[in-house]
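User: Show me a protein chain along with its predicted structure.
Assistant: Here is one chain, sequence first, then structure tokens.
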Amino acid sequence: MTDSHCHIAGDEFAADLPAVVERARQAGVRRALVILAAEDDAEIARAAAVHEAWPECRFAVGVHPHHAHLFALHPADAAALVARRLDQVPLVRAVGEIGLDYHYDFSPRDVQQAVFRVQLDLARARHLPVVIHTREADEDTLRMLHEAGQAGVTGVFHCFSGDADAAGRALATGFHLSIPGIVTFPKAQGLRDALPVIPPGRLLVETDSPYLAPVPFRGKRNEPAHVARVVEALAARLGTSAEELGRQTDANFDALFRP
């Protein structure tokens, strides 16, 4: 299995990273895509420790929409910073997570869009996929991704939690959908009903560690080992085995991120 989105270079894992990695391996998780915040020097530095503890991991780096305000005067500086991180951190395979978040509006919406756009342009120039964060901003996110998709940008909607209609609109961009532990939550029936809409070749799984731990770990720190529970839940809903779904999502990860 592959955890296609986690934040194990964050402070939350600094004290016990080797144990976290060992639990993941014991659960059958062989690698993860680790998200790095481009503007966080400490997190960028911890990428080396992650690589040492778990050499199979790969990385994505970007400016999250929450932090777009840091580049309000010069959005192009966000892309320039990410470009430097791409050159600095080995084994980066994607730009992300990037996108739009209108739920919290920590950054002005026009600034979010400007910073998102320059990072999409960078991904296209570097021939890298993108990892998308979108919350209560679907119309603008989809519009910008359709425009980028026409220029050859590919990627994944991370932490997809929508219904079948939302899945169809997201899939129309040509992107993959990554399913988090939310799929195990009692109130996530709409997401469970959407799963058959997703083509097998466009499906990924994730934890978004340390957030969104699946049942029965809900309320605790999430970690990559728990992606096994996500795979089990998806396999049960789709009428296949966890082993087969793990192989399929591994192959999808390979095709998208070329690890």
